[in-house]
Design brief:
Structural class: alpha+beta
Helix content: 10-25%
Radius of gyration: 26 Å
Largest sheet: 6 strands, mixed
Strand order of the largest sheet: 1-17-16-18-14-15
Low-confidence stretches: 1-19, 21-41, 260-266, 364-383
Shape: elongated
Number of strands: 19
Strand content: 15-25%
Number of domains: 2
Distance between the termini: 24 Å
Length: 383
Amino acid sequence: MRPWRDVRLTSRPESKPPISPIDGNPATNSIAVSLPAPSSATVTNTALKNELGPDLLQPSKTLFTLGPGDAIEIEIIGNPTSRALTVVGLDGKIYYSLLPGLDVWGLTLEQTRESLEKELTKFISQAQVSLNLHTVGSKHVWVLGRLNKPGIYPLTGSMTLLESVGLAGGTAKSVAQANSQEMADLRHSFVVRQGQFLPVDFQKLLRKGDMSQNIYLEPDDFVYVPSALVNEVYVLGAVRTPRSINYTEGMSLVTVIANGDGPSRLDWLANSDNGPFTKDAYLSHVAIVRGSLAEPQLIVVDAGAVFKGRASDVRLEPGDIIYVPNSPYTTFKRYFNIIVNSFVTTVAANEGLRAAGLNATVGVSIPVNTPTTAIPAAVTPTH
């Protein structure tokens, strides 16, 4: 799967409005062949496009396998009194009839049936077993954020992203007398799979009905829909305190970086102290990710030149993600993937802790203001 086109810095980026400097001077919307050198004072601005792999739009061909928490119904054919409901234990074993613990963790239903029959023949001649999955307790998807019923849902078979949002009651709305206001920020909604961001365009899927964005979910996928009522900017990367900051009108790159890390005057620039940055911060390629995560605008700023007064400060917008790298990068695609994966995994970690009832945060805390529950199910999956 290639979630992003490889946009090298030797290619011409799409035209975007110039970035607004706070002193009112025209900003540089560079289409140069490389990122700004440490001594330059340019702003490089480009757009990236969403590209979902076709495999994401197909249901998994992997058969369902048992794990701890799954409940199965077992019966020896011809003996109705032998019917029993057993749950796979934390050790991955089931206990049935005269059998000692039988390890079924990772086995398909058919493999489990064959294993049961093999072991039962030690006590019963030509034993034949009927086996059905009663409830799923080992495989879940996380569907959290500004939804009507956010929670942790069992993955009972093939499930699409749209179906998961439906299970969670759809996106939340604030109903006024005249109209209803969308409370979900679809531009910054995302799906994380195995620690990697999947560039689904929630606006296209939920507002325009674009089924090319309706991916199939897999176990432990994390779906998150943030609140549209929260106006913040986020500072990540090689900084001493990764954090979210409430957005205020006129906020700029310098004020955000300096906020909470010392005096407003950046006297640390003339000293050996690194100020708000870690020792290895690479200020020539500070990035701002703006707009939809599915089709973002990536702005690369020579922040060192800005801080020293050789270039105009950059005005920020609500939802901007500021990322300070610890080394230079050569392609927009790779740089964006690093930034967005850092952002979404931090958010996912925080929301996962909240869903588990733990009062803790990792890095940047993103408020949701919505209760989260785990949703039980008793549905036989497709396998």
